[in-house]
Design brief:
Layout: H1 20-25, H2 30-36, H3 40-49, H4 62-70, E1 78-83, H5 92-99, H6 101-115, E2 119-124, H7 129-144, E3 149-152, E4 156-164, H8 174-181, E5 205-209, H9 210-222, H10 224-229, E6 238-245, E7 252-256, H11 262-267, E8 281-286, E9 293-294, H12 305-310, E10 319-324, H13 329-343, H14 349-365, H15 373-389, H16 393-397, H17 400-408, H18 410-414
Parallel strand pairs: 1-2, 1-5, 2-4, 6-10
Antiparallel strand pairs: 3-4, 6-7, 8-9, 8-10
Helix pairs in contact: 2-6, 2-9, 3-4, 5-6, 6-9, 13-14, 14-15
Length: 426
């Protein structure tokens, strides 16, 4: 029996992505047609029943987010799709936007209907130029077919605009994304107030990830309980997983949350197919560069939010990067830190300076006899400081890979340390 599902990704690669008639043939816009006949709170109740945890990485309950926004009286309200897929190892949203742009547009339009919004925005990472053009074409086709723009299904008006990012990873953070959308510097805002209260143009705003919004049409059409039953009660539905690295079958797979283990994701012939040429697994990196690193001993962990959390791991963005035994852990972590050092917006000291100092220590650890025991102690303090004191999620998670790798591969950190060498002057 196949462990794969085709719910959110149904039709990907099998229909013309921008052809409305093709999309209608696979059940497209059934969700919107049903939603306009329902009361807004009835739609929100289905999203709550679905136990749809945000698919961008934070895993915040979407139903709770929708309910919060609905009860805020201020108008106008805005719908924003976070399509700034800048997390290394993550390419699921690219698949949805390139193969199923009308499903994303339908999900956003349903949200527009529920909240009485007049405008929605899709913030797409700057590197996705071709996808931006495809989305624009899909928007135009949806308008021509009467599913977007004026008098949608004879019920409401709603339009969608495309905003191009400029390649800044920090703009994946929702408040930084809104600042960038407004034409300001893409740096995170102080919260509270929450974006549901003071979001885009200082108005109440819903911000959801591409995969989250693409799940909405199925949830409305089939019902929240049906979606939830695809996964587990604590994390309903399916998840798009991005397999990359030293694995035979590198691509996006849709699996039920709680329906497979990490071992099955990597080794099942239908999914990852294992490592090629007799290579052996050394570690895997979950959820992107900001996610935790796991060891082979954790392979039998069930892929769900709760079970991964118990093991000190996480679903995150859905990335699963597989590394073989030829990969030096310190070299890998140096690359991760270099990425965050480059992408830090510089707003807060713990992130700006912490990444810089961690990078220096890792470079020393890569050379025999360069680092001291004091360097390792400083490294641990820096990690703690960044996690607890950084202004936003970038700094708070920049050292997660290092921190989790320490638990499983402490010996590699200590391998080149000269225990007799005095600590260098600060």
């Amino acid at each position: 029996m196949s462990k794969l599902k085709s719910i959110v990704s149904e039709g990907a690669g099998h229909i013309n992505p921008v052809d409305v008639a093709d999309y209608l043939r696979i059940g497209g816009y059934d969700g919107l047609k049903k939603a306009v006949a329902m009361k807004p709170l009835e739609v929100i109740e289905e999203v709550k029943k679905a136990t749809l945890l945000g698919r961008g990485g934070a895993a915040y309950p979407s139903g709770r987010k929708w309910e919060h926004l609905f009860h805020i009286p201020e108008t106008p309200k805005y719908i924003v799709c976070n399509a700034d897929e800048g997390e290394p190892g993550t390419f699921k949203d690219r698949l949805l936007m390139s193969k199923l742009p009308l499903r994303l547009i339908e999900g956003i339009t349903i949200a527009g209907c529920v909240f009485g919004a007049k405008a929605g925005y899709i913030y797409v990472r700057g590197e996705y130029r071709k996808i931006q053009r495809r989305l624009l074409e899909a928007i135009s086709r949806a308008k021509d077919a009467g599913f977007l723009g004026k008098n949608i299904l004879g019920k409401f008006d709603f339009d969608i605009h495309i905003i191009s990012g400029a390649g800044a990873y920090v703009c994946g953070e929702n408040s930084a994304l809104l600042n960038s959308t407004e034409g300001r510097v893409g740096r995170p805002r102080i919260k509270p107030p929450h974006l549901a209260e003071v979001g885009l143009f200082l108005q109440p705003t819903l911000v959801n990830n591409v995969e989250s919004l693409c799940s909405i049409p199925y949830i409305v059409t089939a019902g929240g309980e049906a979606f939830c039953k695809l996964g587990r009660p604590d994390s309903g539905g399916t998840k798009l997983v991005c397999l990359s690295g030293h694995v035979r079958r590198r691509q996006v797979y849709e699996v039920p949350l709680g329906g497979v283990t990490l071992r099955e994701l990597i080794y099942d012939p239908e999914i990852g197919g294992g490592l090629p040429d007799g290579q052996r697994l050394k570690f895997f990196h979950l959820g992107g560069q900001s996610g935790p690193i796991g060891s082979p001993e954790q392979l039998d962990t069930v892929y769900s939010h709760r079970e991964l959390g118990k093991a000190g791991l996480s679903v995150g963005s859905g990335a699963v990067v597989v590394m073989n035994e030829d990969v030096g852990l310190i070299d890998y972590l140096t690359g991760v830190t270099e990425f965050f050092l480059h992408e830090s917006c510089g707003k807060c000291v713990p992130c700006r300076e912490g990444n810089k100092q961690i990078y220096k220590i890792l470079k020393k650890l890569a050379k025999p006899g360069e680092a001291t025991a004091a360097d390792l102690a400083l490294l641990r303090r820096l990690v703690t400081t960044m996690i607890s004191a950084s202004f936003c999620g970038l700094g708070q998670t920049a050292a997660v890979a290092l921190n989790t790798a320490w638990k499983h591969f402490k010996g590699e950190f200590e391998a080149n340390v000269d225990q007799s060498k005095p600590a260098a002057a600060a």
